[in-house]
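Submission checklist for the structure archive. All mandatory fields must be present; incomplete records are returned to the submitter.

[x] Identifier: OmpA family protein
[x] Organism: Candidatus Limisoma intestinavium
[x] Residue count: 243
[x] Sequence attached
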Amino acid sequence: MAVIAAFASEPLDAKDNFFKRSASAVKEFFTGGKQDNADAAECREEDENVVDPVTDNSMTAAEELELLYDSSLDDNVRIPKLLDQKEAIRAYQLRQAKKLVAAGEQVETMRNGEVIIATIECNELFLPNDTVLKPTAAKYLKPYVGFLKERDMYRMLLAMHSDDTGSAAYTDNLTSARVLAVLEWFQQHAAETDYVIPYAMGASEPLYTNNSVENRSKNRRLEIYLVPGRAMIQSASEGKLPD
């Protein structure tokens, strides 16, 4: 498996526990991600308590991955904290976002342009109540394979959402199975997937009130967070980010 090769110099238990951590991350149902201005002060206070493995150089690669997989979606969106590289990375991310928009993708940004969020409606990926990707799902996932060419250029956070049809246990299990299906697809088609982290959100974060067929359809979605990784920060520090 790719993760074993990546951890060739790390203790065996770190390799063995990788997918266990992945499953653990999927079972957690975190709130948040995108924050409005009313939450800004609270976010700043919470930021101070978030461990940033990029600035904590004492961590091994295995320890860093373990921390990322054990962290909430909110925490993994807040890190890494960008310092001198901030403007270069914001400009780079803006270029990537514009390319996605030009390709017809539904995209927004957060953290003042440092993080890209793409949204894919689940109707494009799955049949109703199904957890197996449709044959046509690749069309909607392929635009994001290119972000996984270089190890830790990006941390890709996959957040799967549902409407509120069914019990909480049902929607939690549904989004867990679906996000794992998407993770497996990326593992099969992308070069570097160690930093692809799945989250099952259940019905906890609707975009719209679940009072119509249209609104429920919009609430069933996959959000792909493209967060700068260590390789991007290093390239920005050296002035080597590509156009």
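[x] Structure attached
Curator remark: Residues 1-45 have pLDDT under 50 and may be disordered. The beta strands are 106-110, 115-121, 154-160, 196-200, 221-228.
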